Amino acid sequence: MSDSTHLHAVDGWLGADEVQRSFAAWRPMFSSAAPQLLEDEPGGSPILLYKSFRDVLGAYPAYPAQQIGDCVGFGHGHGLDMLQCIEIALGELSEYRESSTEFIYAASREVAGILSHRDGSYGSAAVSAMSTIGVVSREMLGPDGVYSGERAKSWGYYGAPAELKEKAATLRLGSAARVATWAELVAAMRNGYPVSICSNQGFTTTRDRDGFCAAQGSWGHCMLIGGVRFDRPGACILQSWGPGQPTGPLTLDQPAYSFWADRTTVETILSQGDSWALAKAPEFASRTLPEHWSYHRAA
C-alpha cells in the first residue's frame, strides 16, 4: 500500500452534507464576527503562528499519527493546543495542557447524532461540541492518556464517559467563526487565531524545494492552518499523519509534519464551508504578535 493510499484510508471528514451545513449555518462568518480585522490588500511578511509551539514548549509537539478516521479530532485538538501556546506567548494564559483529540472527536459525533461504527465527523460539529460540551486534556484521561485509536473508536461509538464530560463543561471554546476567503484567513492568522480546515482536497506527499505540496486527488480530511506567506502566496498546513509525512525540504522553520499549499488551493478548501477560526474569548480581537513569528529564525 502506498503512503497516499494509506493516508486516504484514514481521512475521516464526512463531507459537506446536510448535517454539516446545519451546524455551520448558525455560526458567523469571520468577516461578520470581526469585520474590523480584515484588510483591503493583505500582504507583507509571513505570519507563522506555529512558532508559538517552539516558544512555549521548546520544540514542536511530537504528535503521533492518527490510527482511525478521527482527523476532525486531530485538526481541532492541535488547533486548540496552538491557541494555548499563542495565548501563553501573549500573556493571556499561564498553563499549557495538550488536548485530548479522542474526546473532541467523540463529542463532535455526539452533537451531530452520528455515534456509530463508521468513522468520521465534521468540523462544524467539532466547534459546536468544543463550545457546548467542552474539551479535556490528556492529563484528565489518567496515566494512559496518550493517544489511542482504540479509545477514539470506542468513544466514537458509545460517546465519551460522562465523568469526563462533566469536567469538560468548565473548559469550553470561547468562539469559532467560519473562514471562507483568503482575506478572512489572513486576518485570523495576523491576530493569532488558528484555522481548522475540512475538505476533500488531496495533495501529493512530497514537498518541493519551497516546502509546498501540490494539489492532487481527493481526501475527506481535516487539518490545521498555522501560517501564511505572501512571497509565494500560500498557507502552512499541519497534518495528522505522523512526524515523517510529508517528506521533502522544509522552509520558514515549519514543523516536519506540515506542508505549504498554494493560495488557489487553499481558497478551494475554504470554499467548501467547513473551516474555522478558533478563539478562547467570546469575541475576536486585534492582537499584536511577536515580531519573530513573521520572519525566518534558525532553529
Q: Layout of SSEs?
A:
Elements: H1 3-9, H2 18-25, H3 30-33, E1 47-48, H4 51-57, H5 71-89, H6 101-112, H7 123-132, H8 149-158, H9 162-168, E2 175-178, H10 182-190, E3 195-203, E4 215-229, E5 234-238, E6 258-262, H11 263-270, E7 275-279
Antiparallel strand pairs: 1-4, 2-7, 3-4, 3-7, 4-5, 5-6
Helix pairs in contact: 2-7, 4-5, 5-6, 6-7, 6-8
Descriptive notes:
The chain is of the alpha+beta class. Strand 4 (215-229) and strand 5 (234-238) form a beta hairpin. The chain has a single domain (3-294), classed as Cysteine proteinases (Cathepsin B, Chain A, Alpha-Beta Complex), CATH 3.90.70.10. Helix 5 (71-89) crosses helix 6 (101-112) and helix 6 runs parallel beside helix 8 (149-158). Mean pLDDT is 92; it is low at 1-6. It is 34% helix and 15% strand. The protein has 11 helices and 7 strands. Strands 1, 2, 3, 4, 5, 6 and 7 form a 7-stranded antiparallel β-sheet that branches.
Please give the CATH class: Alpha Beta
Quickly count the domains: 1
Mean pLDDT: 92
Query: Which structural class best describes the helix and strand composition?
Result: alpha+beta
Write down the CATH topology.
Cathepsin B, Chain A
Distance between the termini: 35 Å
Cα radius of gyration in angstroms? 17 Å
Work out the strand percent.
15-25%
List SSEs in N-to-C order.
HHHEHHHHHHEHEEEEHE
| Main sheet summary | 7 strands, antiparallel
Low-confidence stretches: 1-6
User: Which architecture per CATH?
Assistant: Alpha-Beta Complex
